[in-house]
Amino acid sequence: MTDFSLQVTQLGRETKAADSPELAILERVPNPQADTDYVARFTVPEFTSLCPVTGQPDFAHLVIDYVPGDWLVESKSLKLYLTSFRNHGAFHEDCTVSIGRRLTSLLEPRWLRIGGYWYPRGGIPIDVFWQTGIVPQHVWLPETGVPTYRGRG
């Protein structure tokens, strides 16, 4: 059994969320199934950030799918990283793509995508999608399950 306490600094400890995504510590652990292609999914139905112009809160439902290589994201550090956006001012596109790029840089996955389904601001919903390339063959990739915004229609 692997001793993860030697590799992570937040798991199993009381940890406060960082004041900004730049200060957040995002950690990884070895993938014990690195010889197998599979999809890991994180669903974040209550993501929040701030509008960089008005300072008003923005809300999104994020879906992060990735095919790990040698590394997995440590889920507590991911939760704390995503929480750090609550006081961060950025546009929807910037938040979504920044999260995808930071995870890709840390994990070096075989493939990663993020879907940001943002709730309407000013009457217009903005959905943002980013991925690293083509999903590997023979990988089961379920639909995200998040419908596009339909309003009252």
TrEMBL record:
The active site is at C51, D58. It is found in: Cytoplasm. Pathway: tRNA modification; tRNA-queuosine biosynthesis. Its EC number is 1.7.1.13. One of its GO terms (biological process) is tRNA queuosine(34) biosynthetic process. GO terms for molecular function: preQ1 synthase activity. GO terms for cellular component: cytoplasm. The keyword Ribonucleoprotein does not apply. This is NADPH-dependent 7-cyano-7-deazaguanine reductase. The gene is queF.
